[in-house]
Design goal:
Length: about 600
């Protein structure tokens, strides 16, 4: 034991990249190191969280003992198999002096995977769940005997916060502050597909990773080590995407994947990082149940769409002559689409889904009587391949006029996407902006000022059609600049929210029309009572004029009944032209009472 410790010290193994990765050590602001792992049971040395050398020496000591360690209550060789195999490789253990243990629990767990490859799975964003708005990542372990069709039976490796029952709005605050433990778990892939594709209606993208057999083994060994240990879960920092990336880094330490995320981690950015590192191979999509239904319905004739809608409402129409006159293969196609819709609405719905399940049984009985196979229809997700979209942060520089006063402007947004940004790779008709700021310098003023600041600005436009009646909604907290009561440039705090509806058309190319009923509260020294609270409405249109050119128009009327009693009429017109994946031009016009603002800008995404 002492001999091994001396050799490890001479070789400075505790300073090597592999050891640092396996223990999740990161540099601190004071120049030392500290492990991101927060479970005391993960460390074998008393100061192992902050002292790599002490942890390595303690680990070697425990390898000679059969005492049970960690939360998994196993001998150290079995609880920390990745550490054991790496140190054995580097120090050339003599098996007669340090006999290897069989580690039957690990071996049984490992052999069950029959692992051949690892795929990173990316379900796209889900606007109705704060924890899923930016998407999610987890790993799938692809077995040697599995085909693309049977990989749904594979196991996954998932990292998530452990939440108490009936968690409410406190999830947002506690998640941001790291007040929940996060654990790894292995779950069958078909359950994750049911959760994301069928219940949440999220398209799923599968990225096959270019890992060797040895790297796959290292990843699974390290997953075993983390199986009963926790990290403090941080919604923006140490989240699902960050720690999934840490597993891949354990398989290939030289990639330095986590170095790109010192402050916050957005799931799609980790996919881009993997692609840049050459670790991404084949990419395939698994469209959501909603996407399947919408794409299939769009390919139908008007008569077929009519029968689809009728059969979803009442399967008794199956026996009507009008449906029976359709060709058999088209009947089958309509029935399969109806079944997809009914499955979509019954999945995860409990007792409330019983009527949908009953209707689906009638649809499936009728489908089984048709001995035909409809033509295969390739289905593409509405969200383009996420990692090929624009960067999630944005910087802009521009110039304009406000009430005949010229200015220059720079703006910066931490994340993520707004309604006018280039759409490929992002959820259509959805906006999530986190921490944005605009600085302006007016020519007739001697200093720059913060023109606007956004803490959070979310809009979800959900077009209503025959198959979906989900509401649209929006929420905003921030600050802008107003002209009011003789004050030319006054800071104005804003908190607002709204509920509404949207509809889609294709008069030109594709347009979404929307209307919101909304409430708003303002705070500014420009108001007589320093505040005003009221409500009103907004109507508008978002239009794709070409693949590169987008237009947005809106008008709002709000009347304030509390605080300063006043009203506000607003107009907005904005247009974006895409130059390339990460470059765009914009022009925006804003009007409020006696206040007109025009700005031209160049936007760069990174």
């Amino acid at each position: 034991m002492n001999e091994l410790q001396d050799r490890a010290a001479t070789l400075r193994l505790a300073d090597e990249r592999e050891w640092q990765v396996l223990l999740h050590y990161r540099r601190t602001w004071l120049g030392g190191v500290e492990s991101m792992q927060d479970d005391p049971g993960f460390f074998l040395g008393a100061q192992g969280k902050t002292h790599p050398r002490e942890e390595l020496a303690a680990t070697l000591t425990r390898f000679f003992s059969d005492d049970l360690v960690g939360r998994s209550k196993q001998p150290a060789q079995c609880a920390f198999v990745a550490r054991y195999h790496w140190l054995k490789e580097r120090l050339q253990f003599d098996d007669t002096r340090l006999p290897p243990l069989p580690c039957e629990r690990f071996r049984q767990w490992f052999d069950e995977f029959k692992a051949e490859a690892i795929s990173l799975i990316f379900p796209t964003g889900f606007m109705n769940n704060p924890s899923s708005m930016f998407g999610h990542t987890f790993l799938r372990v692809d077995g040697k005997d599995q085909t693309p069709q049977t990989r749904i039976l594979a196991y996954t490796i998932n990292y998530a916060a452990e939440l108490p029952p009936d968690t409410g709005i406190e999830y947002v605050f506690k998640g941001v502050l790291g007040m929940y433990p996060g654990y790894f778990s292995t779950i069958p892939y078909y359950l994750k597909v049911q959760e994301y594709r069928d219940i949440d209606n999220r398209d799923i993208w599968e990225y096959r990773l270019n890992l060797t057999e040895r790297q796959v083994t290292r990843l699974l060994m390290h997953t075993w080590e983390l199986g009963n240990a926790y990290f403090d879960y941080y919604f923006f920092g140490e989240n699902c995407a960050y720690h999934i990336l840490s597993l891949i880094e354990a398989a290939e330490p030289s990639a330095h994947l986590l170095d790109a995320f010192p402050a916050y981690t957005i799931p799609v950015d980790t996919v881009r990082r993997l692609r840049e590192s050459g670790l991404v191979g084949e990419v395939i999509s698994r469209p959501s149940r909603s996407t399947l239904v919408r794409r299939k319905r769009a390919s139908m004739t008007g008569d077929e769409r009519m029968w689809l809608d009728r059969l979803i409402r009442n399967p008794a129409g199956l026996k009507e002559d009008g449906f029976q006159t359709l060709p058999s293969d088209r009947q089958a196609f309509v029935l399969e689409t109806a079944s997809d819709y009914l499955l979509q609405h019954s999945a995860g719905a409990g007792e409330e889904g019983a009527p949908y399940r009953e209707k689906n049984r009638s649809i499936l009985r009728a489908r089984s009587e048709l001995k035909v196979t409809p033509p295969d229809l390739p289905i593409q997700p509405y969200v383009k391949q996420p990692d090929l979209g624009h960067g999630t942060s944005r910087f802009g520089i521009g110039a304009g006029w406000r009430n005949q006063r010229a200015f220059e402007e720079v703006n910066l947004r931490a994340a993520y996407h707004d309604l006018l940004d280039p759409e490929p790779g992002y959820t259509p008709d959805a906006q999530i902006e986190i921490v944005s700021v605009g600085l302006r310098h007016y020519h007739d003023r001697s200093q720059a000022r913060v023109e606007r600041f956004g803490l959070i600005n979310i809009t979800s436009l959900a077009p209503i059609d025959a198959l979906s009646q989900a509401p649209s909604w929006k929420f905003n907290i921030g600050m802008n600049t107003i002209r009011h009561n003789g004050c030319e440039l006054c800071s104005n705090g804003v908190a607002s929210g709204g509920i509404g509806a949207a509809m889609e058309s294709s008069l030109f190319r594709r347009e979404v029309y929307f209307a919101f009923a909304e409430a708003e509260a303002n705070y500014s020294h420009a108001y007589d009572e320093h505040h005003r609270i009221g409500g009103g409405g907004t109507v508008g249109m978002l239009a794709d004029l070409t693949d590169r050119w987008k237009l947005m128009l809106s008008g709002s009327y709000l009347r304030y009944a509390l605080g300063e009693q006043s009203e506000d009429i607003r107009w907005f017109a904005g247009s974006r032209y895409t130059l390339s994946q990460n470059w765009a031009l914009r022009v925006e016009y804003n009007h409020r009472d006696h206040d007109d603002d025009v700005v031209f800008s160049v936007q760069a995404f990174f």
